[in-house]
Amino acid sequence: MEPMKTVITIDGPSGAGKGTIARLLAKKLGYKYLDTGALYRAVAWKVREERINLDNHGALKKMLEDIEISFNGDKIFVDGMDVSLEIRTAEIGELSSQASAIPVVREGLFSLQRNMCLQGRIVIEGRDTGTTIFPEAENKFFLDASIEERAKRRYEELRIKDSGITLEATIEDIKKRDLRDSTRQNSPLLKTDDMIYIDSTSLNIDEVIEKIIESLKESR
Ligand code: DC
User: Has residue 2 got a pLDDT over 80?
Assistant: First the structure.
């Protein structure tokens, strides 16, 4: 059997730095990288594009059966269209958080994520990767940071594209998403006992990666 260490899961709240860390870690190990939040954002993008009402679960289900999401390097495509930049707005962030609480959306994206894990040699990050997508992974991490630090990081990212954004609005936004992501019924964000907890508030990127690499279990 393939050793389980070839799947590394990183879960945590919005703005904890999962994306940056997971991407660099994957590069360092020569693994693939899957940003599962980008999948929910891609779905939200299509919801907005097709003006689908989130209460219309039938329409959502149909859309999820038809949608084609693909990656090429750091880029993500929906039905062949590059949406990498468009999915990174505050509006899509909020819509993706709402959409991700709906069971048909989570079910629609499950197999894609699970199948990528089954191929191994992957760093996967999100909210439920170590609990629902690949609970048997041997190396699971929970990446956290203070709410102020997370909001600051998100704000720096968002204001490049949106000059109207404020730090106060970003803090409120993050609080709302934290609450929704961790209290929803389906696969809420959860730290389990088998996850290694890393608080990145006062660590730089290299220090976080170092900590993760030090903690990786050898295959048995
Ligand atoms: O990490 P992110 O901000 O790009 O994720 C966008 C939203 O997608 C987030 O608010 C919650 C949802 N999400 C999820 O429910 N499960 C995941 N594994 C990843 C993201």
Answer: no
Query: Which residue in 59, 16, 6, 7 sits closest to 189, CA to CA?
Result: 16
CA 125 – ligand 1 centroid, Å: 9
Pocket test for ligand 1, best of 96, 180, 189 (most atoms within 8 A of CB): 96
Tell me how far the alpha carbon of residue 81 is from its chain's centroid. Answer: 20
Nearest protein CA to atom 1 of ligand 1, as residue:
37
How confident is residue 3, by pLDDT bands cut at 50, 70 and 90? Answer: very low
Q: Which domains does the chain have, with CATH numbers?
A: 3-213 (3.40.50.300)
Q: Say if residues 52 and 60 touch (Cβ distance below 8 Å).
A: yes
pLDDT tens digits for range 30-72: 999 999 999 999 999 999 999 999 999 999 999 999 999 999 9
